[in-house]
Amino acid sequence: MPRPDPCRAVIFDLDGVLTDTAHLHFLAWRALAESLGLPFDEAFNERLKGVDRMGSLALILAQDPSRSWREAEKLTLAARKNAHYQRLLGGLGPGDLLPGAADALAACRAAGLRIALASVSHNAPTVLQRLGITDRFDHVVDARTLHRSKPDPEIFLRAAAALGVPPAECIGVEDAQAGIDAIKAAGMYAIGVGAEGALRGADAWMADLRGFESGLGAHTLPAPTALSAALVARTVASA
User: Is 13 a catalytic residue?
Assistant: First the structure.
């Protein structure tokens, strides 16, 4: 698993990388969709990976174009789904870290790398707390402050800016196509987690984070580009 040289930071996604609450999201979204008389299955749920809450709701409601929704109604529906999801989170604990996740975070810290979380979930701080890994991160991007969701690079550029590390000296780790696209748009090196070949554009692939620490050897990645610098400036200015 090659990495940039110098590499100064690793920016992780949360769901599907460090833990898997995707099934809890699925259950909460399915309950909401069914209450509205809309279809929802595992295949549709895949379309929501890497998409924020309101974006996910928009995809679900778009299945019935004959009905229009006021913004206040959408916010109420999103809050209803989130309340259900938070109830489901009650049973989450350190044992729900995915294989290799704890070792990967420890290896990054031992290597002197900065660590950030780039999750579009508003519940990310709660999830980190329940997993017992909040203190492993130097920065957690506040999803509530984002103007644009993945595949826009804003969240990864925000993370890099907060860490004080140029994008080209960062590794991004994601399990969703929207996330890989966001990492690459930010000018970072992208590691895809999941089925081999499923994530287009990833620079490297891992089935899970087991063995991540063995790949922290020195390799070369091109120097920061003018585009990356411009994106960082734009993101920081809009923060």
Answer: yes
